[in-house]
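Researcher: Let's run the pair from yesterday's discussion. Sequence first, then tokens, for each.
Model: Starting with the first of the pair.
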Amino acid sequence: KATNLLINNPAPINNYFGSVLFKPGVPVICIPTTSGTGCEQSGGAVITDTKKNAKGAVSTGAPTLAIVDPELTIGLPRSLTLAGAMDAFAHSVEIATSVYPTYFAEILMLDGVKKIMKHLPIVLEDGNNIEAREKIMFASSVAGSAFSISYPHLGHAIGHSLGTKFHLPHGFAVISCLPKVIEYVALSVPDQVIRLGEAMGIILEKNVTREEIGKHVGHAIQIFKSHHGVPSLKDMGLSLEDALSVTPMVFDDVMYMFSPRM
């Protein structure tokens, strides 16, 4: 999508970060071979600016056509299957708990959470299970389409920053701090986090505090990702100091990419 933008506009691509002042490209067809980003449905592209060591977004407009075929993910290694599913899961969780929610997006995202939780164990056990592959790819693609009406939030800002500086797999980076992120956002959107918990099979007692809501649902996300072998930041070679070092980048990412929705 970014290459398409440069067909009728002069390089470099970072001239167009956050801008809509450019000539349209040619018709473009996207055919995903992983189930994670859902970018075949979204109107943007995320590009690493190697000079500024930061990720930026280009508003390219949605592709002319997306061909979403789960057969193209057969044979995908377990690690890429898992990382992609974690990205789709994080998209679904964050969009469902946005501070600028839409009922339509929330319903779709909670369904995506259910699909990924149900079918990911099947795919990781049997990568040739086309039905399970289809369900996860559907969840990924629908989350990508939801970017037009809502956005992920702090989890992706953290993941973008960690991934940019330390070159971590994107899906693992964005899921790494999501349990704590959900604890944090539950203080602002407790009802949405309760509905997220229900989609994950968690029924909370009445009169629970916002802090308790966040801790219960955040813990469930931690169990989910750990159960499937998602590596921790420490497992990926990062120290606490490494993680804290991206704090300025996280705030820049929030302001630069997500401020219209936060």
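Model: Moving on to the second of the pair.
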Amino acid sequence: MNNGYQSATIDLLRHGTIAGDAGLYGHTDIPVTESGRLQMQQSVNIDLQYQQVISSPLQRCLHFAKDYSQRQTLNLKVEPLLQEMNFGVWDGQTFDQLQSCWADLERFWQSPATVIPPNGESLTAFHARVTQFWPQLLQQCRGTQSLVVTHGGVIRMILAQLLCVDWQSADYYQRLRIDYGSITRIQVLYTDDGIYPQIRFIGRPSPAI
């Protein structure tokens, strides 16, 4: 190993509790509640001093990222590729409002890789968007402790790649819980031979939950 290796710590912060009834909120620009903002704040107050913040452009991530980066005098980068999956005509609808298409939703949950939300983003396209951006994120975070404010689906896609699990399987999404306001930490080693990410923990709950 070269003595000039570098490292990075990447904290993936899921946004806090949203200000809406249970439903599908992908690209819909819904805010977080005050308790959701507190979840995010308490999660980042624990054990790291970040050098930069990278955020999804959706307000449930970006409002906190802007406020936090300003208070800590940190550089903020807004990255559209960190947005949640687009659920098309289902997006922004509560589960009560989606009752008329419940059978289609059931098929989507049972086979997310083969059922595409009407006018929405396929799981394959979402996977490609996140995994193609991941190497860029690794380079942006090189040599830093970075806070990445994003969404549950994005975090699951990153973890699926690092864990080499089947991202097309419904079981993967049903069994992996990423709470609102939780932190998933990835440590990365950069050497002349390659880049080696290692998951330290997944979905550490906010103390405010």
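Researcher: Give me one sentence on the second I can quote.
Model: Residues 53 and 84 are 18 Å apart (CA to CA).
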